[in-house]
Structures are given as C-alpha cells and as structure tokens.
Amino acid sequence: MDVVKVVGKYLNTPVGTVCYNTDKVLTTVLDKENVEGFASIILRLATKSGISMSQVQTLLSYQWLEHLSMYANQAHANTNFALIFLQGLNKGLQKNTFLTGNHLTIADVAAYHSIYPMMERLSILEQESLVHVCRWIKHLQSKPKATKSVPNWAIEPLPKQLYPHELKDVDLTKPVLYFPQPFSFPGYPVILYL
Fold it and tell me: What Pfam family is a match for this entry (predicted)?
C-alpha cells in the first residue's frame, strides 16, 4: 500500500484512498473508476500522469509488478524467502539495465521501494552475491526523484582497489578487488578470491 503512495508522489499524481476490498485485493478510485490490483493501479497512475510506454514495456512492467505483488509481502516476512526472491530479480536483471530493458519505467520505481528493506537486511556476502540487483539499485539511486523517499543504500567498504599494473605486488592470502579494463560497466569491480 505504501509503495502505491510513493509511486503517486513520484508521478505527482493523486492516488486517492488505497485500501483492501473484501477479497483482500488492493483497491483505489482513480478518475471516478474503481481500480483493483497493485499492477493495475501502478500502471493506471503512470498513464494518468502522462508517461508513455511501448506495448512491450507495459506488458513487462505488468509482469514485474504482478510478481512483486505476489511475492514481496512473503519476502518481507521471511529472510530466506527474500534471498530467493532477490536471486530471481538478480537473474532478471542479468541482461538488462532496468527491469523492462534499458530504460527506467514505473516498474523499476515500484520495485525499488518494495525491495529496499529486503536488501538492507541482507549480510554483506548475500548483497555481494546479487551483483545485478546492486548495479540496478545504484542506477536508480543516480535518479534522486525515483528514490527520494528512502535514504541511499550504502554498500560496506570493500578491500583495497587494484588496477592491472598493481597485480604483480598483490598479497594473495586475502580477497583482492580488481578493476579489469575494459569492462562492461566501468567503475564496477570484480572481486577475486584467490
């Protein structure tokens, strides 16, 4: 319910009263019309605010939003389920910058606000295993309007950074952070555990 309100603020679009109906389905009234379901509400808010998406982006957004609505509550309640849920998200982001491709959509904004608390609860090792989710979060955090309702997620400091010319003097008894060049995402490290 809170995510819907945050998305409404992001889009600068009134959300109305958001509640659960007798069938326990998230419901609101937009333009004097009853709108039911998390994904339907978010996409209707996007349309109402004037955001245009291609048919493919709309369908992919709907799928991601439905996935969030089905599993996010359970993931918030259970840390083990949260890790499995986030691993699925990580796999989905493996070949895309954002959820629906290479452009930010409303699905990314809603997903960010939904999964942010899950990521905070994970250990550093678990966070490091979700490389694509971490990259996606950093991309979103570079757009302050999309993430302003929560503080930026801070990744704990990693071991000393090394560049190629420094590898000959490396102590291989502990983890090494190495920046290979060229790399598909400049500035994103590869951690070598030797």
Answer: Arc1p_N_like
